[in-house]
Specification:
Blueprint (H helix, E strand, L loop, with lengths): L1 E6 L2 E6 L2 E5 L38 E4 L9 H6 L5 E5 L2 H7 L4 E5 L5 E3 L2 E6 L6 H7 L4 E5 L6 E3 L7 H10 L3 E5 L15 H10 L4 E5 L11 H10 L6 E2 L11
Parallel strand pairs: 3-4, 4-5, 5-6, 10-11, 11-12, 12-13
Antiparallel strand pairs: 1-2, 2-3, 7-8, 8-9, 9-10
Length: 253
């Protein structure tokens, strides 16, 4: 298994003999307006891609956790070959197919999907709480399993919640990827994991390596890499969590 953080939640994953492009956000820096109802008016993405987009355009399969613009943007729709297989959560296949992609499959809510020898199990999540969480809509994480590979849990856009805890207890992942930017609006709590949520993941999966992404690329993600490092150091957990830079391949931890 090899994992590269591209930017934000966009990942290049080599797993089970396949290459996965996950949650591609390929727009140029500042191509989009700021997220509304947030604490600043910085245009998105805040940072450029760490290299030419062309190097990530020919995976074996694209995996989209949900259709928010920072996970599936206009540049991805335009640049990716439309004959690529695309996997997504149930419901999103309609819109992706309408965008011209010819081989879109949904991972069922209640049973695994096997794609070319890799088993994918959808895990629910909470993209915030209360009215905000309802407004943000359905989101997904995925557990990856394949012969000769560690169990990988990609948590997606979720806070620490019952679904995440259940996934850790049921699947015992050896590596966990969390979206840790503490995204939030002016009112209400975080809609992705903040420092405390990452601490909870570490405490509940004490044998797992944790990789923290989705930071410093979108204007409403307020937890920086340094803020997370400081909190993890206070908790004695810094050695458990790898916080990659954009473009960096994740080391073994």
């Amino acid at each position: 298994m090899k994992i590269q953080l591209i930017r934000n939640a966009a990942l290049w994953l080599e797993y089970g003999g396949l290459t996965f492009l996950i949650d591609p956000m390929l727009n140029e820096k500042e191509a989009n307006p700021p997220i509304a109802n947030t604490a600043n008016d910085r245009r998105n993405p805040l940072v450029p891609l760490p290299g030419p987009a062309g190097q990530w355009l020919n995976p074996d399969v694209v995996l989209v956790t949900h259709l928010h613009q920072d996970h599936w943007d206009a540049a991805a729709v335009s640049l990716l070959p439309h004959d690529l297989p695309v996997l997504c959560q149930e419901g999103d296949q309609i819109r992706i197919s309408a965008q011209g992609f010819a081989a879109v499959s949904a991972v069922p809510d209640h049973q695994p999907l096997v794609f070319r020898g890799v088993t994918l199990t959808r895990i629910g999540g909470q993209h915030g709480t209360g009215e905000t969480g309802e407004r943000m809509g359905k989101v997904s994480g995925f557990v990856f399993q394949a012969e000769g590979e560690p169990v990988l849990y990609l948590a997606g856009d979720t806070i620490w919640c019952e679904e995440v805890a259940e996934a850790l207890g049921r699947h015992h992942p050896e590596t966990i990827i969390v979206n840790a930017g503490g995204a939030r609006f002016v009112t209400g709590g975080p809609i992705t994991m903040d420092e405390q949520d990452v601490v909870e993941v570490c405490r509940h999966a004490q044998d797992a390596a944790v990789i923290a992404v989705h930071m410093e690329a979108i204007n409403h993600c307020l937890v920086t890499r340094e803020m997370l490092r400081v909190r993890l150091a206070e908790e004695g957990l810094l050695e458990r969590v790898f916080i990659p830079a954009d473009g960096e391949f994740c080391r073994s931890i």
